[in-house]
Amino acid sequence: MKKTTGFTYLLLIFLILYSLFAFSSIKTIGAPIIDGIKGNNMLFLIGIVWLFRFLFMKKTKSNLKVFISIFIAFSFAIISFIFNKNSQSLYAVLIAFLPLLLVSTANEYEGKKFKSFLKIVTLLSIVYSLFVFLEFLSYDFFALKFSLSSTASYVTRHATMLGTSITTSYYFILNIPFEVIAGNMLEKKWKKYTYLSIILSVIAIIISQSRICFITLGVYFVFYFLNFNKNIKLHNKVLIILLVSVLMVWVLNNDQLSRLYQSYGESFSTETRVNVLKIGIDEFSRHPIVGSGIATYYKRLWNSSTRFVVIHNSLSLIDPHNMFIYILVEQGLVGGFLLLILFYNLKKDYYNPLPSFIKKNIKILLIGLIIIFCCGSQLINEINYSVLFWTYFTFLFSYSLCERNDLHD
């Protein structure tokens, strides 16, 4: 049993590494081809990993409760495929729900490995942020070597093996609260690495030029000062303010980063997104109960020639750039309600037993996630990011199980 649990732990770490570092040419090997576009073989990897973990690991009542909640939401979503008979619809359901199933395999063994996981998060964040910075300095070289996106729209906003610059910045937004947790939980010698990873994550987000993530950084800064102000020594406060000031001066004096402080009214992308949201809200109003069906309009696999879709005579982007509108348009109030039940069960069984310090960080993370998901749908339409996200929370929920059992002893 110990060998099995050790192997399943390594499988989760493998998923993180594969999401971050496998090239797109590797991720498309054996992947499904839909509408002439190759998907991602992570779809098969995550299915195999989950099945192995679910069959061979000891299950708790919490595991089963969460699995049932996911299965009910999944069953409702799969109806879209049955009615649409659309391969895009089946692919959309699978990339949304297969990574989510990971949390139904949270276990005490990986809870005991939580500190090891935090060390890996810290080190990977340092490595990936340095990679992003090197890309910023010489993107053409990396685009050639690693077959990254080199389209005109990414001249100053660079893709990585994880995905677009936006997806990459979402990764660092996810990382920062976990890095703060690592700084509190890990041994003293690791603190310097956690501080370094936080600083580099901030720089990587700025370089990625996602305005919503830049705003989220500001929200993080405010909430961390409000929550942990008393615990920060005066000289550290001065140092943080100096670092923030230096970063702001750098941003304001770097033409390549001008997108971050460009007026929203001047931005074509902002105008387009507002229009797309209006179209999405209109479509939801037409089918408010069960939605219009998954991938009826918003395809998961598309290219530059198919990135627009006509919805009731209105031209819209293939992605509404708002996860909440995305869910309501496709699954309606019923689908949204089923997902709320799932998240309620996750909160009750896994969030409540966590120590107060971790709870504070997760609350700040959730605020950040709500902000970025109001402008992006990566969690449900990009499997690389989704796998990372739910793997992180599988470790967190595993740690919660350990905490809960210690309280019961």
User: Major sheet: order of its strands?
Assistant: 1-2
Output the helix-strand order. Answer: HHEEHHHHHHHHHHHEEHHHH
Tell me the overall shape.
globular
The N- and C-terminal alpha carbons lie at a distance of: 23 Å
Low-confidence stretches: 150-155
| Percent helix | over 70%
Q: Domains counted in the coordinates: how many?
A: 1
What average pLDDT do the residues reach?
84
Structural class: mainly alpha
User: What percent of residues are in strands?
Assistant: under 5%
Q: Treating each run of at least 4 consecutive H or I residues as one helix, how many helices?
A: 17
The number of E-state strands comes to: 4
Specify the biggest β-sheet: 2 strands, antiparallel
Based on CA atoms alone, the radius of gyration comes out at 21 Å
Keywords, separated by commas or semicolons:
single chain; 409 residues; mainly alpha; two-stranded antiparallel sheet
General description of the model:
This protein is an all-alpha fold and 409 residues long. The protein has one domain. Helix content is 71%, strand content 3%. The strands form two sheets. The protein has a two-stranded antiparallel sheet. Helix 5 packs parallel to helix 17, helix 7 packs across helix 8 and helix 9 (165-185) packs antiparallel against helix 15. The longest helix is centred in the C-terminal third of the chain and has 29 residues, at 323-351. It is globular. The protein starts with a helix and ends with a helix. 41% of the residues are buried. Residues 150-155 have low confidence and may be disordered.
